[in-house]
Amino acid sequence: MSLAAVLMFAAFFAGAAIGVPIGHAMIATGFLYLWVHGSDMGLVATQGLNGLFKSFVLLAVPMFIFAAEIMNYPAISDRLLKFTTLLVGRFRGGLAHVNVVLSVIFSGMSGSALADAAGPGKLMISLMTKENRYTPGFAGAVTAASATIGPIIPPSIPMVLYAVVADTSIGYLFMAGIIPGLMMAVSLMVLIHVMATRRNFPTEPPIPRNEIVGTVREALPTLMLPVILLGGIYSGAVTPTEAAAVAAGYALLLAAGLYRALSPKELFGVLVRSSRATAIVAVTIIGALFFNYVVAAEGVAEHVANWIAALGLSPLAFLLVINLLFLLLGCFLDTLLMLLIVVPIVMPSVRALGIDTVHFGVVVVVNMMIGLITPPYGQMLFLISGVSGIRLQAMLREIWPFIGALLAALLLMTMLPDVILFLPRYFGYTG
């Protein structure tokens, strides 16, 4: 590796350590690399913009962000909450179970873990901590852990980005995430059942029989969004990118038309927030595209592939090492950075070992989501602390059993590829 590359990576990690936004740090250190290397400074813009303009798939990202912003409105989330309470509220620790099931349903609409935590998650925390029914730390930990399901069950913004950097089918990636997402939900609900029994958590009063039909009917239009989105993709009617536009349009129709819950002023606020979130992702992608250019120019991926080949690792051993690497990096680095930088470096080794790229993608995204709740970085924990006022220390005391439950699910996904690949293969995947 050249001196210019060493200085670039060193400056990047130094900038990230003092709080410089990841995207800005990558772009700034990209200029440093070109200056030391004696190359044209315009290469940063060329690599970044070419990467954005050549990838039609990336248009799905702002659409899913927009849909998630709309789905966060109380008119929609309240209906989903009542529906999930009807399903699992009667169990001991009912609201904790509702929290998980609500995340599963919301995951089929937003594709973002942070959107889940900031919207329905905030609502669930206020309900769980009302009248001291659950401790704030437990409520925050359940919300953080359940929100990790969001990008696993389709749609998924991280899977869209993985598909771009790994040149893999988005449709099959989306399909592959369904069973793993449900596995994560089941692992969390089993843990909640054990904890609820030991701590004698309350149950929720049953919804009267005469309200059951109305509850289902009111939630049904919202529940149709995942059906429309996935049905359109897998029937071949729309591409995943077009499906993102359909999801955004349907969400807008629900909120502004059917439920009449989105005024022009509120819609403008949704557009502003969606634009800001999209800009953050775009800047990060531009920086990552240039980093990948440096990785390719310096031959880093080939050196890593040769080193791994020399170790003689089996595919399973390699996946376990990758899990450990991502889990450790997740304690300190932004998850989007790991996806956009680390994945391109290890992809030659993944292909050389014959590991299915769809299986690997789901494993990587699950690792990223666990990284969101892993101290000390724990971006999800900081977000929930900010929106709910729960002390970070209180959540840290409660989060470890949930991390353990998610790691157990991850281990099963890693060791049993057929769990992930069953649905894609059933629908024609041959990779």
Textual characterization of the structure:
- It is a single chain.
- The chain has about 425 residues and is an all-alpha fold.
- It has one domain.
- The protein contains 21 helices and no strands.
- The chain has helices at about 5-15, 20-35, 45-55, 60-70, 75-90, 95-105, 115-130, 135-145, 155-165, 170-175, 180-200, 210-235, 240-260, 265-300, 300-310, 315-330, 335-350, 355-370, 380-390, 390-415, 415-425.
- The longest helix has about 35 residues, at about 265-300.
- The radius of gyration is 22 Å and the shape is globular.
- It starts with a helix and ends in a 5-residue tail after the last helix.
Distance between the termini: 34 Å
Tally of individual domains: 1
Shape: globular
Question: Beta-strand percentage?
Answer: under 5%
The largest sheet, given as strand count, sense and whether it forms a barrel, is:
none
The total of helices stands at 21
**Uncertain runs with pLDDT below 50, 5 residues or more?**
none
From the alpha-carbon coordinates, what is the Rg to the nearest angstrom?
22 Å
Keywords, separated by commas or semicolons:
21 helices, 78% helix, globular
Write the layout of secondary structure elements.
Layout: H1 3-17, H2 22-37, H3 43-54, H4 60-71, H5 74-88, H6 94-107, H7 113-129, H8 136-147, H9 157-166, H10 170-176, H11 178-199, H12 209-234, H13 240-258, H14 264-298, H15 300-311, H16 315-330, H17 335-352, H18 357-371, H19 379-388, H20 392-415, H21 417-426
